[in-house]
Design goal:
The complex is a heterotrimer. By secondary structure, chain A is of the alpha/beta class. Chain A is built from 13 helices and eight strands. Chain A has two domains: 115 residues, no CATH class; 115 residues, 3-Layer(aba) Sandwich (Rossmann fold). A four-stranded parallel β-sheet of chain A has the order 2-1-3-4, with helices on both faces. In chain A, helix 12 links the parallel strand 7 and strand 8. Chain B starts with 8 loop residues before the first helix and ends in a 7-residue tail after the last helix. Among the domains of chain B are: 252 residues, Rossmann fold, CATH 3.40.50.10420; 68 residues, no CATH class. Chain B is 49% helix and 11% strand. Chain B is built from 22 helices and 13 strands. Classes of the chains: A alpha/beta, B alpha/beta, C alpha/beta. Chains in contact: A-B, B-C.
Chain lengths: 240, 481, 232
Amino acid sequence: MNEVQLFSTCLAEEFFPEVERASATILQRLGLKVRLLKSAFCCGQVAFNEGFRSEALDLARRFMAACDPAMPIIVPSGSCTSMIRIFYADLPFEDAELTAKAAAIRPQVYELSQFLVRVMKVKRLGARFEGAVAYHPSCHLMRELNAREEPMALLSGVEGIRLVEVRDREECCGFGGLFSVKFPHISGAMLSDKIDRIRQSGAQVVVSNDCGCLMQIGGGLSRAGADIKVRHLAEILAAR
Amino acid sequence: MAVSPKATDFFAASEAGAADHELQRKLESASARHLEHFAEVRDEFTPYENERATARAIKENALGRLDELIVELTEKLTDHDCKVFFAASADEAREYIVKLATQCGARHVVKGKSMTTEEIALNPALERAGIEVLETDLGEYIVQLRGEPPSHIITPAIHLSKEDIGELFHEKFRVSYTPEPEKLTAEARTRLRESFLRADFGITGVNFAIAETGTLVVVENEGNGRMSSTIPEVFVALMGIEKVIPKLSDLPHFLEILARTATGQKLTTYTNFLRGPRADGDLDGPREMHVVIIDNGRSAMLSDPVLRESLMCIRCGACLNVCPVYRHIGGHAYRSPYPGPIGSIVSPSLIGSSTAYLPFASTLCGACKDVCPVHIDIPRILLHLRWKETSSPAPPPWPHDAHRARAGARMFARLARYPRIIRFLGHIAAVLVKPFAENGWIGSMPPPFANWTKVRDFPAPRPGHPRPANSAGKSIRNGRS
Amino acid sequence: MADLSDIVARVKDALGSSARGDLAEIDANGAPLHALSANDRAELATQFGHELKSVAGDYLGICRADEAAARIAALAAETGVRTAAIGEGVAIDTGAIATALETEGISVLRTAPGVDADNRTQTLRRVADADMGIAEADCAIASTGTLAVVSTVSRPSSLTLLPPSSVILVNVDRLVRDIAAAVATLGANEIANHRVTLITGPSRTADIEKRIVLGVHGPKSLHVLIVWPRDE
């Protein structure tokens, strides 16, 4: 394998644009040619999760038209990866050709850390990052993709890093996509617990693989006036 | 406990729950204790994973030929002199039981814990018929005294502290205040013992119904299910059609996992095998035993290939304990006898359209799916129900701001088909909100993002403006966010 | 009002044409019952005792059949029992126990077969008023510390439910390894024809702040004696 596709996701494009470059940098350092998937913008999860299946189908078609099923597709998000890799199977594509294409694409889609550890078999990327870092595992990454070890393995390989533990770190931050604006009171109560535990951990930086969690936790930290930053895992792994 | 919520009650109730830090503290500590016990018994029981898989396979098989199993069970129960009644709806089940109690001249009904009786709102109907109904599970007894429905399917009074219960007993029974669980339990024992001995009508739910032997299995810890099915002259067992398992040898697989996940025990204190009325000369058991088998939406669930899986539930309650939403709003907010993740997938079918929001009230975090002893893929079912609700001819009426958020998401999804347009709009949005950003975050946003900034800041969009590549390590103190 | 055919029709419709042939036949049979050696039984007894204690049961250990009556009479006397209710045994002669209790000055209620509807309520009350209920279990499960009692005319299950103190004897031959073995030992026939209860420890609740309290509705204490009938 010498070439991969990179789909940076809509949230990263709009709110965390450095994620795309950082992810590309990491992949290129491993000797891979990186093709950016720019003719698609969103995997369709936001529509799918709200029950707007025809909109989700449209976006899925657009995404599939953009990619080459013969080549791995790297997504720096556990949530978007789950959508494509797992939930595209639940989308009722009308024609057999699209269904076949979805079946071909799904196993080619990898979340960044899983691709690095499981496919490329690397853990140390020569990254260097100074600071106390708390890792926040995103729910889809852990429970849909079953990636519990990979991000930690990669973070442990970063020079200068000091990893700190957040109590109950596997508990959801309360983002949940549109849940966060439909049920702000519940989402906010969950976030508030998360912020308290992050503050108790002594972390200077919170790292996650999902821009949704970064928006939620970052927004909570900013609102609380905490001097703690949020960073995407790719940024840490690309830092030197 | 009639559940007749107004359509948007969930929003108000969950808001109240989310603001109640005391409630969250109680739920957190009770859940933590439960999860600790569960982890202990799970870790020392190596066949646990196999038992989960076997139990699931048995349920899958049983649901696949449920029609045959119902016939077999009915024949066996009838052979045992049980009277079997079929109820298509909650109304039919409730009317049958009330009529039966009235005809028997019942005056004092004792009930073991049964979520299905909550589902059919049985207690108020019995009371309207002038019959005293006493919940005898300690937790149920406590919430009944408070005039509340249970807030958890295993631990009905999980939302109350021992102090709350001490005050309740003090007020209701005029006994001196004590928060000690031992003394409170002793008080309840004395009072309920007398009630059991004079009860003329008993009602419990059913955990498993074995078709092969015509046996109803009721598991419990306190002995109240045993009492309710042993002492009164007339006994009614109420069960959903999905409770049937084919063979006696299937049962141990469920017993091995149910208590472990439900309460962290290896086996519940009492596992009762009930088969029919007492024989001549027997001391124990009722003179008449009725089995009410209820559909009430279950066959519709069975016909939906995705939703069918939710009928595998053995009501262990573990998904409630791990659910961060449940733990932040409490069971009452769900406005259904079935709260939490499992409640969110079964309530729309069993309780009705007032619970149509529940599938949306989840972050899809998946903790429920991980803990479920029969591996029900709850998040996938939630997604399926969201789609069904959205495409139904009468979708639930959303509160204004939630409606706006959904409309916004739909609009976004439609625009996102045209990457160039959506990127252009993204750039415009970034320029528009830039003046309001401080350190990269915005404190107040207009709709449809206004709800976002109610509780946290919003990230300033900056498409095409990444942080410098090497800044992650160096600039954590002076960069944005 | 619905009847069996309505419900079955609904379920049939719901299942549609989904092929039943595909349903995997579940081989869920319990472990085969091996004949156990005396050593195996001693081991199971130890495990049973350990598990019983972990559910707050009182394990009285193993004794010979001819010692059981004295052991139980002593326990009753020690715990201030004034009335005891006792049923017929399964493999053990409970008559000797009743006599030993009476010798201690304890009044004994023997649950006689053939209770009629008229005196049922009174009999239940008398059992409930007894300080101690004594019964023999049909089977005991080592892996969970559980006793299986089959309710019959001469051995009503109220004996292990109503009195605050419950004493259960079990013959060592009736110890089995796990729940599956117990269910297999009791057998479909026995279970189809009787009320059976599996008892694991004294009655308990965790309904107040998930704190465990014993003796809610059933017995507050459970004492178990394993009886070894032969000289092995």
